[in-house]
Structure formats: structure tokens, C-alpha cells
Write a structure and sequence with these properties.
- This protein has 470 residues and is of the alpha/beta class.
- Helices cover 31% and strands 14% of the residues.
- Strand 10, helix 12 and strand 11 form a beta-alpha-beta unit.
- Helix 14 crosses helix 15.
């Protein structure tokens, strides 16, 4: 079995890893770290909870240690793009954790907070900048930051960024990043749009995949209720009003729906909070903190806002509304049964959601059991559907993708209005460099040769610990 000590990471990183109590890398870490230390572009298929943040953070920090440079004003050497404020914050925290014995400046920018403070934080430059696409473009437009010094570009949760309408923003960002760079793209799913994006942004990438998107967590018990939409709120309270539930994460399709659920639960005396794109950053953080420390039993979230949640101890996940994308179901229920625990995922299925249920069951390769009626409820559940019933896909806008944030610039954590232009073409070359950078005027292409010294394969660069502190 691979150990972190086998991965040739800098001793300063190994010290931080040991202090976190880690000895053995997760599968994606064991696969990705050696490849990234060879300067390869990487396409990673991995869900939240697989350890993917450390999989890209550790080799990136190792690179900064090996090739230290003085920070330049209003610039960054590493750019990480994430779909939501919460995820951006967690990524930045991970970088800070592992760089505790380095002289490494990590900055985070996202919407929903005052932009002037972020402008000031970037004046002296950063080694690592973690950003949501919308706010980053706002800062670039104000000349608060330039992207011409970026040597490593990381796109995390790329599928969710596309769902939120960030495709044009991503292309606008990549066109300003040097062509000679290392590019990493991580996604929980692999739709055609992600494949196309990888074709445009990455140069001969290696592919690493762990936990196939259609695989549900083995320790998650799954069940469902057939219930009318009008009775869902009443049933939800009865299900959650159970002393066996430690923490429950409830998924709704829309921001308005999340607030409606919270109001109902609070009115009945159950502690609950909500996170979605219409909440300010302090409001979202307050709700998350209360959920983490146990002061709030129920957290209601939209799919997009929940991408930043990485909390152990969630005993139950409730799909108040069934997602229209099967992989989203897998992602939702993966929030429970972490760290060796078991968990229960319950879905409320209305008549107009049976089509989505069938798609989910096909994807996960199993039928989800119908649960017996809770003893404490007066709700009349719907009769079991005819297994031979012909189902039709509901009409109207796609479900399961709303709630990430308001449209327009400056939010960073939500959708931006699609814009024209900013086309992208196939990359042409390779790799990070320290001088003579040229920006990707072809929309994300790359050219040039390796400059990281072929770390671990006989390169002539010597490992340097300049800029590190013991």
C-alpha cells in the first residue's frame, strides 16, 4: 500500500501531513500526486469526499517550494477556480493547512462580500489565488489582478461550474492565462461538455477516475416515500422529528423552496437553517457553523450551494425534491455515511417525479426500497405505482440545477448571464515557466517546453527550499 512517504513530497509538506494525522493517501491522491509532480495535465473524475483537494494541493505546493519566486503585485502563480464561495473557502483552507511551514500567501475571492477588501488583499500579490469565476472577472476588469503570471491552473467541480452558466466566464479567464502552464480539471461527472472543455483547455492529459459517478456509497441505506407535492412539507417534519437523527441535510430544487421548508420547520419548533445563492456570505457561514457544531439539526440546501459542504456526522440526507440528473442524486446521498459511519438517504417522490426516479434507479443499478409509513404521521402516502406504468419526461425547465446565486457580475457564487465571444481552441504545447510568458490569445492553447526540471526523472533542477520557514 502506498504511503505519503513514498510520494517524494517536500519534507515541509510531509511535516504538515503528519500533523494532520495522515499516513496513507486516498486512491485519487496516490494516483494523481506522482503524475502531477511529473508536470502532466490531469483530468480527474472524483466526487467530494475522495480527498481530491489534497490531491492537487500537495503537488502544487511542492512545485512552489521547488521553484520559489518573489511575489509580484496583483498577480498569482497558481489559480484555482471553484463554483461556490463555500468550496473556494474550503480549498483555500486546505492550501493553508498544508503550507503552514512555507512562506505561502493564499488569497480567496468570491462574490457576496465587499470587493474593495479583496482588491486590497491582492495588491501585494499571492502565491495561490482561489476564486469563483464571476468575482475574478470583476477584479480583472478593475485591474486589481492580472493572470499573466499563472503557472498552474486548477478547475475544481467543473461540471457544476458549467451547470451554473460559467462556461463563457471560464473561457474568458483561460484566454488571459499563459499558454505554458499546467492545467488540472476535476469533475464529479463526465458529460460531453466536460469532455469538450478538457479537449480545449488541457494538453495531452492523463485521466484519473475514482468512485464511478454511478456508484452510490455502500454504507448508505436508501429509501423513498411516494407522496404528493402538497403533503411533502408535513411528511418532512414528521420524518425529521426523530431523536435518531443527528444531523440531516435536506435538498430542494430552488432557493425559494429552501426558504419555504425552513420557515415550516421553524414554525413547528425544529431547528433549521438554509444556504443558497440569495443568502449573504455571513448568513451562509452562520448556518454552516450552526450545523457543524450541532446547534442546528437540519440544513436545507440547493444542489449548487451544497457543493461546498464537507461535513462529517450527517446521519440523514432527504431529497425533498428528486433531482432530474441521476448523478446529482449520487452526489447528494454521498454527503452521509462518511468517515466509516452509516447513513440513510430518503427521497420524497411525487407523481411528476417518477420519471426521474426511474432514471436514477437505472443509473445506480438497483431499485430503491419504499419505506413504511412513519408511525407519527397523519399524511396519506400515495399508493404504489404500477410497475408497468408508462412514464414521460416532465416538460418545463430542467430541475435540480437552480439555487446557486443571482445572475450578474459580482456574485461569484452563482450564475452569471451568458455572454458572447471568448472562443477557445485546442492547446498546442506545454508547461509552466518562470519567464517570457505569453498569454493564451488563442483561447486557452499552450506552447513551449517543460521548465519544472523533470522532477523525479533526472532533471537538472535542484530542489530548493528558499522561501520556506522551518
Amino acid at each position: 500500500m502506498t504511503k505519503f512517504s513514498d510520494l517524494n513530497l517536500n519534507p515541509l509538506l510531509m511535516r504538515a501531513i503528519a500533523e494532520e494525522g495522515y499516513d496513507t493517501p486516498t486512491p485519487i491522491q496516490a494516483q494523481a500526486i506522482p503524475l502531477l509532480m511529473e508536470d502532466k495535465d490531469l483530468l480527474g473524475i472524483a466526487q467530494t469526499g475522495t480527498g481530491k483537494t489534497a490531491a492537487f494541493a500537495l503537488p502544487t505546493l511542492d512545485f512552489l517550494l521547488e521553484f520559489p519566486q518573489k511575489r509580484r503585485a496583483r498577480s498569482a502563480r497558481v489559480l484555482v477556480l471553484a463554483p461556490t464561495r463555500e468550496l473556494a473557502g474550503q480549498i483555500a483552507d486546505s492550501f493553508r493547512t498544508y503550507s503552514r511551514y512555507m512562506d505561502c500567501n493564499v488569497q480567496t475571492v468570491f462574490g457576496g462580500v465587499n470587493i474593495n477588501a479583496q482588491r486590497r488583499s491582492l495588491q501585494g500579490g499571492a502565491d495561490i489565488l482561489v476564486a469563483t469565476p464571476g468575482r475574478l472577472l470583476d477584479l480583472v476588469g478593475q485591474k486589481a489582478v492580472t493572470l499573466g503570471d499563472v503557472e498552474v491552473l486548477i478547475l475544481d467541480e467543473a461540471d457544476q461550474m458549467l451547470d451554473m452558466g460559467f462556461i463563457h466566464d471560464l473561457k474568458k479567464i483561460v484566454v488571459q492565462v499563459p499558454k505554458d502552464r499546467q492545467t488540472l480539471l476535476f469533475s464529479a461527472t463526465m458529460p460531453k461538455l466536460i469532455s469538450d472543455l478538457a479537449q480545449q483547455f488541457l494538453d495531452k492529459p492523463v485521466r484519473v477516475s475514482v468512485t464511478p459517478p454511478s456508484t452510490t456509497a455502500e454504507r448508505v441505506d436508501q429509501g423513498l416515500y411516494h407522496v404528493s407535492n402538497n403533503d411533502k412539507l408535513e411528511l418532512l417534519f414528521d420524518v425529521l422529528n426523530n431523536p435518531e437523527i443527528d444531523r440531516a441535510l435536506v435538498f430542494t430544487r430552488t432557493k425559494h423552496g429552501a426558504d419555504k421548508v425552513v420557515r415550516k420547520l421553524l414554525a413547528k419548533g425544529l431547528s433549521a437553517g438554509a444556504i443558497h445563492g440569495n443568502k449573504s456570505q455571513p448568513q451562509r457561514q452562520k448556518a454552516l457553523d450552526a450545523f457543524k457544531n450541532g446547534n442546528c439539526k437540519v440544513l436545507v440546501a440547493t444542489d449548487i450551494a451544497a457543493r461546498g459542504i464537507d461535513i462529517d456526522g450527517i446521519s440523514h440526507v432527504v431529497n425533498f425534491e428528486v433531482p432530474n440528473v441521476p448523478e446529482q442524486y449520487v452526489h447528494r446521498i454521498g454527503r452521509t455515511a462518511r468517515a466509516g459511519r452509516t447513513g440513510l438517504a430518503v427521497s420524497f417522490v411525487a407523481e411528476d417525479e417518477r420519471y426521474y426516479l426511474r432514471d436514477i434507479e437505472k443509473t445506480i443499478g438497483m431499485e430503491i426500497d419504499v419505506l413504511p409509513k412513519p408511525a407519527n404521521t397523519t399524511v396519506d402516502l400515495l399508493p404504489l405505482p404500477d410497475p408497468n406504468e408508462r412514464l414521460f419526461k416532465p416538460k418545463g425547465p430542467a430541475r435540480g440545477t437552480g439555487g446557486g446565486g443571482r445572475s450578474g457580475g459580482g456574485n461569484g457564487g452563482g450564475q452569471r448571464r451568458p455572454q458572447q465571444g471568448a472562443s477557445s481552441s485546442r492547446p498546442q504545447g506545454k508547461k509552466p515557466h518562470a519567464a517570457g510568458k505569453s498569454t493564451g490569445s488563442d483561447g486557452g492553447g499552450k506552447s513551449g517546453g517543460k521548465s519544472r526540471g523533470g522532477r523525479g526523472n533526472g532533471g537538472n533542477k535542484q530542489r530548493s527550499l528558499q522561501g520556506a520557514r522551518g
